[in-house]
Automatic annotation (TrEMBL):
Top-rank lineage group of the source organism: Eukaryota
Cross-referenced CDD domains: HFD_CENP-T
CENP-T/Histone H4 histone fold domain mapped to chain residues: 29-118
GO cellular component: kinetochore; nucleus
GO biological process, one term: kinetochore assembly
Name by which UniProt lists this protein: CENPT protein
Molecular function in Gene Ontology: DNA binding; protein heterodimerization activity
Coiled-coil parts of chain: none
Keywords: Chromosome, Nucleus
Ranges where the record places region Disordered: 1-23
Subcellular location: Chromosome; Nucleus
Any Pfam family hit: CENP-T_C
Keyword hit for Nucleus: yes
Amino acid sequence: PVQLQRPKPVPGRSGTSQRRPREPQIARSLIKEVFRYFVKMPVTREAFKIVEKCSEKYFKQLSSDLEAYTSHAGRKTVEMADVEMLMRRQGLVTDKVPLNVLIERHLPLEYRRLLIPIAVSGNRVIP
């Protein structure tokens, strides 16, 4: 009788993937572009690696704080009020410097139009 040959198992491989899911990361090119915009001088690779690590930790903390504010309010969606509260706690937004002033200072016009309501003729408000 003819016997069927079974394939030999490959050592070190199982039926499931052994890869761990990777955490999403901010693009290195974006961090480098923003950092170079503010520094305006050459930066060594070692210094840039430290900047990358710091920015990654900062955004992890930022997102966990926003998540905490949202869940404390009993919602599942982050809203503008959560971002403003975070910026107040960080000292970026104060009574003298409201969020609208920061938006006008640091964002281009197309983003300002999306974030700040604008009164136009006919008593209409955009957006």
